[in-house]
Amino acid sequence: MRAVRAVIDTNVFVSGIFFSGPPAKILSAWHEGYIKLSVTEEIIEEYRRVLEELVVKLGAVNIGSILEAVLIEAELVPSLSLKKPVCEDPDDDKFLACAISSQSKYIISGDKHLLKIGQFFNVKIVTPRYFLDNLLS
DSSP alpha helices (H): ranges in the chain? Predict the structure, then answer.
């Protein structure tokens, strides 16, 4: 099976680290090479910030090794600026821009603002459950 190029939004990425369920299975699929993760500097910074906040609340996780894995294994792509805001939450546009820049086929998200868009150019925005059931099975 060829790796599926995808962008994983912050809530799925962080949930996969701290909890079991579909987000954890998504991260496992990434580690096993079934997903080619694409990120930008802005996405990595958001991963870092949210992980740091949650470590304080939920306990010890080695953020350094997680972010190092992202830096080593993920494809770092240049940030694009969208001509105009697309998402109701403009902060989420970085995931759309990353998907376009990396030519990813999917954004895996649990964010209602992103999911509401459904598709942006050739990028489908899907839930972790949908991705697992329909694209990795």
Answer: 10-18, 22-31, 41-58, 63-73, 93-102, 112-117, 128-135
